[in-house]
Design brief:
Length: 158
């Protein structure tokens, strides 16, 4: 075998390995899939209105600690689905400032669901809009991981 043939074989092997790495990197990032493999992420909480000593209070029952008027927590770029059930003895309406959303006026035993799509961090108060606008608690929206987006194949491997 001549030395030119050896160099040609080495160049072909190195070129083939580089091409294989590029193909694996391109396909591995989902650029060739016929369907999306990511589902819309969402945070789901369920809270109930209760009337305790004549005052409206909220208690978490799903996805939230059972504390009175808890701080609800969600993250940016995720759908936030909040189900509100009225276990009280009077009508209630949950209002979230900053998002300007509210439930229907809930009679005892009724429920309603609010869906919001927060895009920035912050703390937002929630109220029982039926009564005076006295804050019951807050919803805290945070960015959990700053690098949720693709940073390049080599940074994702580290």
């Amino acid at each position: 075998m001549k030395s030119n043939d050896k160099i040609l074989i080495i160049v072909a092997l190195v070129g083939g390995m580089i091409a294989l790495a590029v193909i694996v990197g391109f396909i591995g990032q989902g650029n060739v899939r016929h369907v999306t493999i990511f589902w819309q992420e969402k945070v789901e909480h369920t809270v109930v209105f209760e009337d305790i000593e004549g005052k409206a209070q909220i208690r978490g029952i799903k996805g939230v600690a059972g504390d009175i008027n808890p701080t609800l927590l969600s993250r940016t770029s995720f759908a936030y689905v909040l189900t509100v059930i009225n276990n009280g003895t009077t009508n209630h309406r949950l209002y979230i400032e900053g998002f300007n959303v509210q439930t229907d006026l809930l009679e005892p035993g009724q429920q309603d669901t609010i869906t919001i799509y927060p895009d920035k961090e912050g703390e937002y108060l929630y109220y029982d809009k039926r009564q005076d606008l006295i804050p019951l608690g807050k919803i805290k929206i945070v960015t959990v991981v700053a690098s949720d987006e693709f940073q390049g194949i080599w940074r994702d491997l580290i």
